[in-house]
Each structure stands twice: as structure tokens, then as C-alpha cells.
Amino acid sequence: MAPSDLELLRGTLDLILLKTLSWGPLHGLAVVRWIEQTTHQRLQIEEGALYPALHRMEQRGWLEAEWGYTDQGRRAKYYQLTALGRRQLALELRKWSRYSEAMGMVIAAEARP
Amino acid sequence: MNWPEFRRAFRLPLGKRAVKGEVAAELEFHLQGRIEELMAAGLSRTEAEREARARFGDLPRIGAELERIDREMVRRRSLAEWLEGWRRDLRQAFRSLRRTPGFTAVAVLTLGLGIGANTAIFSVVDGVLLRPAPFQEMDRLVMVWQTDRKSGTLREPASLPDYFDLQRESRRLDRLAGFVPAEITLTPDDGEPSRVATLLMTHGLLPMLGITPLAGRGFTPEEDRPGAPRVVLIGEELWERLFLRDPAITNKSLRLNDIPHAIVGVLPASADFGTLQILGAAAYGRGFADRGGPARVDAWLPLRPNPTPESRGTHPLLMVGRLGAGVGLEPAQEELTTLAAGLERTYAQSNDGRGIFLEALPEVVFGPVRPALLVLLGAVALVLLVACANVANLLLARATTRMREVTVRAALGASGRRLAAQFFAESALLTGAGVILGLGLAVVGLRALMGMAPSDIPRVGSIGIDARVLGVTMAVAAGVGLLFGILPMLQLRGGNIQSLLQGERGSSAGKRHRRLRSALVMAELALAVMLMAGAGLLIRSFWRLHQVDPGFAAERVLKAEFELPRSRYSRRIEAQRFADELRRRVSALPGVVSVAIAGSHPLDAGFTSSIVVPGREAEAADWPEPSIRRVDAGYFRTVGGTLVAGRFFDASDDVEAAPVLLINEAAGAQFFRGTNPLGQRISLWGAQRTVVGVVGNERIHGLVAATPPAVYMPVTQEPVSGGSLLVRVRGNPAGLAPAVRATVRELDPGLALFGVEPLGETLSNSLGQRRFTMVVLGAFAAVSLLLAVIGVHGVLSYTVAQRTREIGIRMALGADQGNVRTLVVGQGAVLAGAGLAIGLLGAFALTRVLGTLLYGVGATDPVTFGAVALLLGGVALLASYFPARKATRVSPVEALREE
Fold it and tell me: B578 with B743: CB under 8 angstroms?
């Protein structure tokens, strides 16, 4: 399968970013790399959309940004979930699993009775 | 996967300027990372850069969007942080104030008293004097008084023919109108008849004043003629009470003196142009203004004047005029004097000695109350000064005791701004609480003032709390609170932390504070002394007035007034029968000692008439007209009048007997100086009457004014169709009022009884304005004294606390308790002495402004000033006693161990 053949569904970017950051602080580039690796390049994030999403989430108080240093000693901006962000993640997860469950039922249906 | 080690660099800086750089750095980091990745995968640098940018998308647009989001975030966060900072400061301030409840209570109370008293008094002055009157071109309105050279009176009503002549001939007055006060009986469809204050007025009065009816219309010239159909304008209050503000009011009618009057309109409550004040200023013909207590005009009737030639001798009409455009008072006065001289020549008999006196209407209405109100205004400003000094004092004391705390915190790195914000928050809290308390006190105080205010203060009904007044007072108080609240901060900035940390005792700031506080306390004491001197003088005046012998014994006398309607009592015999029956029935009531019926009660100026002593006609031309009083045989016994010579009236002085009269001492001195008046004859009302007695002066013009000449005639010879019923009782006169009312109702259910009150009350009401000024000024003096005492106590307590160590040393070295007490009390005495000296000097300079408010005492009455000095000295010593006692309990050992 060629990379980036899956278009991102609307509204799922927040969930992806929250989940990505749920293990600890990351800078923007690391977020992109992690998503690419985890989804084996199937899900390609448009990098341009990533940063505005991160900043907006910071504004909402879901994330906290802090400057730090990478292993190579470079200065980078790290994002970290706040308590509010964790609550939001749980909420989005519940929403998503209900959604995909419903989608699954539709797809698995065999014939109209 | 491996998590990159996360090493903290620094917090995200908050600042709009930093946003741009941060966004650029973040994006740059991203692109560089990508480029390195791509180069590692084999791309050349140029290709890698192009690929990375392509993957990212529209870099400038995204960058701009990020900046926008971040800037918005920074803005919101700094606002939130600012608010949070304030909340924290206020919370801390609240806690810190709660730790010192004594200080907080006194400071808030002081501020509240200052603000409340000022707002209340300013509101009164503003409502009465400053706010524009609801009349067009008030400054062109003048009272046109008639003068009498013979009696020297300046303010008399005019006769109808004179009014018409002046109105026709004056060019410098562009309008002239007039009114006559009257009281008439209003008989509602249901309910008891009542007596209402009425003005009979010329139809031009309302248009001239610019008063427009709320409903309906004013009077037409046709309605203002003799024999015209009966019409009436009613007041707003009556409209509300009797007709529930029925808009169809002009279809209704009102029964007045038993005659139906068609209602043509309603006049607004604000239409009072100073009726009571004008009437009060008049030499006679004052109508219901003599009643005392609040009188409101409820109905207006057309005058329907009938200027017959004979009527030139009677003077009922109060004239109000309007100066022509651009005409001053003086030219108009000149013209009217000329016109009056012409009338004098033409009608020598009636107009001899009659002139005209023009007086600006505002002067008449506001003139009498202005001095009292301005004095109160000045006094309340002094109270505010004392309050501010006290608050400043308290805050300074607090600041000094907290100097260490502040210094330590500053040394530990609290920023000046942070500390200032906290002090500011404390001051703001104190001031805010003071303002709320002050507003409450102002509302309560204003209500009390209005309840106490005598009716001769104009426009009392229009007074309300004024927002501007409150604003100004609040600003002054808040200014003082904040200034002295953050003073310690300013000192911290100027002084050096090192010396402060070493101990406040030696610090120069502490000394400066102490000097400033002592100065403030002295100022407070001095201001309190001035207020006390003023209040003391008024109290002495009032006391002196109460010692004035009114010429009658008002205690235990009940007064009730009535007026017999012409419709039912047209003949003499009917009025007489009513009077006899009333006297008989009231005499039979339990507890009644004696009963009298008189044309006017002892505090009613009544009316005047000219007299002639046969053989001395030439002299009589220059005699003032005496007050004419008709009384019955029981009058002097009932009111407790005194007989100087001859006899009182008795039952033998009836219609059949020869006409007799009594004169008062003033009349004796005026008309019969050097001769024995008894047996002399006086010609009055077309009959020659023999003087059978001389009675003591009854103060018919009130306690302050001199008593004019008066003559008394028996009602049996000159009956009255109305007047006063006077009843002397054994117990409380007010208790008899219901029985008297019931008796009158039995006798004539259609008759309205009015002015029912103990005569003593009438007497004290006549001093209403003086009592008002005295009570208010007295309250101010008491408040300022209290505040000053708090100040003295505060300063001394503080000194004792500060000098604990010194006192301890002194005691260790052998000083006994007496020495220590003297030390502290001595300091109090110095403060009190200085304050007293300054205050007395100020009082010497200032009490002059009391002027006419004083009676029987000089403005620098030594007795009053001495009493003030004693009181203040005593209270100040008392205030220093407690700190002194505390000082004597200092234990030398502990004092030295301390610190």
C-alpha cells in the first residue's frame, strides 16, 4: 500500500494528538514521526495542519508547552498533556469507540431484513 | 520506542513580542529535522529542503496562524493572571484586616460616619439651595411688599385696589400677580370634613411662575371675576388621596366650605414656589403658615377680586411680580416707589405712609434658611476632615507596626509593586466597606433629618440622596485611605532596608510617623473644639430662648382651631350660641380646669387694625397698627396671662354694657407713655372703648421677635366666627384631644377642627429651625469629639507600645508607677493642650458665622468656650489614662528581654 492513502477523517486529529502525547512530552516533529511509525505510514498527517492544532489545544488548556533540549542538544518546543487534556482524551476515546462500533455494525450487516 | 530525554529549559515566556520568535524557532526546528531525515535517506541538500517545504505546506500562512493563536492565548492568560493577582491580594487583605478587628472596625466606622454625614447634609443643601427651582427665570421674580412707615414694617400684603393700580401702571414689571392664603373646609363624599390649606390667586400667577397643571388647565380671566362659577385646582396629593389619580378629574367637583366647586385641573407636587416662606416673611396675613408643622397647599381657587373703594383699607394680597426683560431690581423699585407715592396723594386716608418694597423671590424663600444650612455644611466638612485625619492616623499606626514585616518581605525579594498592590488592596477594602456603611448611614441620616426638619425649610419634599454628592465625598475619603494606605511603601522606597531591619525604634521613618500622627491628632482635637464651640453656642441660645417668658403658661393647655362656615352661621347669634355650647360641653369633660374661646391663640400674630385715641388724632398718624385680639372672659385664666393693672374681662362685659378693651404692656408703652391708660378711650371699629386693664405681653410673634402692641376686646362685644378653643387641663393636654374632637363632632358634624395640639408643642414648633440646627450641629460635635478621642487613645497606646523598653529601663532605674503615668498622661495633655489652643483660636474666628442663629449669647461666649475646654480636657485625659495604666504594668524584666 502506498503511503498516505488514507485521508484523515474530520475531527480525529485531536484524538490522535492527545493519544500520541499520552505517554509523555514530545515536540512537533516527534509527534509526526511517531504517528507515521505507529501507523506504518498509512496515516499521513499534513504537517501544516499539525502545528495549528497543537497550538489551539494549548490555548484550550489541554496541552502545556515548554521549551526543552533534544538528545542532540537542540532547542525544541515540547508539548505535554495537562490534567484537562487527559480528561479530554478519555472523552474523545469513548466517542470514537462508539462511532467505530456503529460503523462496524453498518459494514457487517448482510442484508436488509 | 525510546522517549527522548526531556530536559527543561525555561517556561514559555509570556509576552506578545516573544511570540513571533517562538513560532519561527519551532517551525525551523521542524524543517531542519525533516531535512536531515531526507538527506539521511539519500537526497541532496537542495532536494531535501524542497521536499521538506513541500510536505509542510504553506509555511508563511501557517506561521501567521500560529502567531495569531499564540497572541490571543497570551492576552487571555495575562488578563486571567491579573485578575487572579487581585483576588489573591484582596483575599490576603481581608485576612489581614480580620486579624485586627479593632482597627478595622474603627477605620470603617470613621470613614462611614464621615461619608454618611457629608452625603446627608450635602444632599439637603443641594436639594434646598443649589438645585434650580422649577420656575422659569426665577431670578426675575420679585415679591412686591407694601411697607408701612408708621409701624416701620417692611413686608405687608397689599389691598386689592392698590394691586390693580400697580398692575396697570407699572412698566418695569412685566407681570404682577397675587395670592391670599386661606383655610377652608373640605367635605368629601364619604368621610369626615377636613381643613385644607388653600391659596386664592389671581389667574395670572401660575403662567407667570411657569407652572403647568399635570392634568386639566389653569384659571381663565373669566373665572377670576366676582360672581363667576366656582372652580378649583387641586394638588397632586389630593388627586391621589381622593380620586386615585383619575385622569377624568375635570368632570368631578369638590365640596369646599359647603359649596360645590368644579375641578378644572391638578397642580404638581413640585409647584410649591415657597408659599410657606413667603407667608412666614409677611408681617401679618400669614394664614396657615402660622400653624407650624408641615403645611401643604391642597387646593387653589381663583381670587375673584372685588376691588371696592372701601377695600383699599384692608390688606390681604401678597403680590409677586416679574421684572421686565433686562430690568434690574433698583429701577423697578424706583418706579414702584413713585407709583406708591402717587397712590398716597390720591388716597390719603387709606394709603398714608404706604410704600412698596421689592425683594427678590429667591431671597425671600431661601434667605432665612441659608445661614443655618451653610453653617451645617461647613460643620459637616469639618467632620469629614476629622474623619479623614482619624483614618490617616489609624493607617499610619498600622503601617508603623507593620514596617518590620514589610521590610522583611522586601528583603526576601517581594517586589515593590507586589507590596504596593497589597497595601492598595487593604486600603481599597477599608474604603469600600466605609463607603457602603456611609451610604447606609446617609440614607438613615437623611430620613432622620427630613423627619426632624422644620416646615420652614423650603422644598424639603424634593430632597434625595444625590449621586454627585456621594461621589465627591467618596472620592475624598478614598483618596485619604489610599494615600495613607500606601505611604509605608513610599517610605520604604526612600529609606534603606538595612536600618529598618535593625529595628523600627531608631528609624527616622518611625519618628516621622510619630510626628505626623501627633499633628493629625492635634488637628482632630482642634476641629472638634471648633464644632463643640459652635454647638455649645447654639445650645446656650436655645436654652436662653426657653427661658424667655412667653407671657403665658403653655403647659397643660390644649389648643384646637375652627372656622364656622358662613353658610350655616351667618348670624351673630348662631356663632355665639355655638361658642357658648362648646364652652359648656368642653368644661364638663373630665380633667378640664378652664375653657376659653378666642379669635387667635397666644402664638398667632392675628391681624392688625388702626386705632385712634380721641384728642390725639395727629399723633396717631404715626402709630403702628396694633394686633387686634378678641378673647372671652376665661381666656387669661386659661392661658395663664398676667394682669399688670386694672382688671380682666368678666361676665358683665356684654353687648348691653359699655364697650371695653384691654391693652398689652407694649401698647401701653407705645400709646400712653407717661400717662395712666386705665379709663382712657380708644376708638376702634367705629366705637369708643374704655381701657379697663393692662395685661402682660404675650409673645404673639414668637420667642425671638419683640412683642408688638396689641389690644384685646371681649368676644361678647365683638364675636368671632372662628378661632381657637383653648382648654386648660389637669393632666396631659394631648390626652384630651379625642374628647374635644368628639364634642365638636356632636355639636356640628360638618365642622372641621384643625391645629389640635398642646400649646406647648406650638411653642416649641416655633423654634423648629433652631432646634434642627442645634441637634445636627450637636451630633456633629459629638462625632468629631469621639473621633478625636479615638485618635488620642491610638497615638498614646502606640507610644506606650513603642517605648515599652524605655519604660522598662526607667522602672528598673527606680521610676515608680506615678512617674510612668505622668509620662504618658503628660504626652496626652500636650496633645490636648495644643489642640485646644488651636481650636479655640479657630472658634474665636469662626463662630461669628453663626450670626443670627445665636440668641442671648455672644459669638465668643466665655462660659461656652470654658465648658468646651473643660469637656475636651477631661475627655482627652480619660483617653490617655488607659494607655498610661497599661504603661505602669510594664514589667522591667520582660521589657528588657523583649526584642
Answer: no
Cα–Cα distances (Å) from A50 to A30, B27, B414, B721, B829, in that order, read 11, 11, 41, 105, 80
Please report, for residues B91, B144, B359, the alpha-carbon distance to residue B425 in angstroms, rounded to integers and kept in the order given.
Answer: 9, 60, 55
User: What is the SS3 assignment for B480-516?
Assistant: HHHHHHHHHHHHHHHCCHHHHHCCCCCCHHHHHHHHH
Where residue B500 falls among pLDDT bands split at 50, 70, 90? Answer: low
Spatial CB neighbours of A65, under 8 Å, sequence gap ≥ 6? A54, A58, A77, A78, A79, A80, B12
pLDDT over threshold 80, residue B832: yes
Q: For residues B362 and B345, which has the higher predicted lDDT (pLDDT)?
A: B345
A30 contact residues in B (CB cutoff 8 A) = 4
Classify residue A43 by its DSSP letter: B
Q: What is the pLDDT of residues A10-53, one digit of tens each?
A: 678 888 899 999 999 999 989 988 888 888 777 767 787 889 99
* pLDDT tens, residue by residue, A45-95: 778 788 999 999 998 889 988 888 888 888 899 999 999 999 999 999 999
Alpha-carbon distance of B153 to B757, in angstroms, equals: 31
Strands B687-695, B681-684: pairing is antiparallel
Distance CA B400, CA B447 (A): 40
CA angle B241, B246, B249 (to 5 degrees): 100
B544-565 b/e (C-beta count within 10 Å ≥ 16 → b): ebeeeebbbbbebbbbbbbbbb
| Shortest CA gap B38–chain A (Å) | 13
**Distance of alpha carbon B748 from its chain centroid, rounded?**
41
Q: What is the ipTM of this complex?
A: 0.87
Q: State how far the Cα of B788 lies from the Cα of B878, in Å rounded to an integer.
A: 12
Amino acid at B716: T
Name residue B397's amino acid: A
As a whole number, the mean pLDDT across chain B is 83
pTM for this predicted structure: 0.67
The confidence band for B717, taking pLDDT boundaries of 50, 70 and 90, is confident
CB < 8 Å to B53, chain A = none
What pLDDT, on the 0 to 100 scale, is given for residue B341?
92
Q: Over the Cα atoms of chain B, what is R_g?
A: 40
- Other Cβ atoms closer than 10 A to B866: 12
The three cell numbers locating residue B807? 519604660
3-state secondary structure B816-844: CHHHHHHHHHHHHHHHHHHHHHHHHHHHH
- B146 with B162: CB under 8 angstroms? yes
Chain B residues with CB-CB distance to A under 8 A? 1, 3-12, 22, 25-27, 29-30, 32-34, 55-59, 62, 65-66, 69-70, 72-73, 76
CA distance A82 to chain B (A): 15
Distances (CA, A) of B1 to A30, A70, B881, B892: 11, 15, 82, 75
Q: How many CB atoms lie within 10 A of CB B443?
A: 16
If one counts every other C-beta atom within 10 angstroms of the C-beta of residue B74, the result is 19
N-term to C-term CA, chain A: 36
Residue B10 has pLDDT above 50, yes or no: no
Residues of A in contact with B57 (CB under 8 A): 46-49
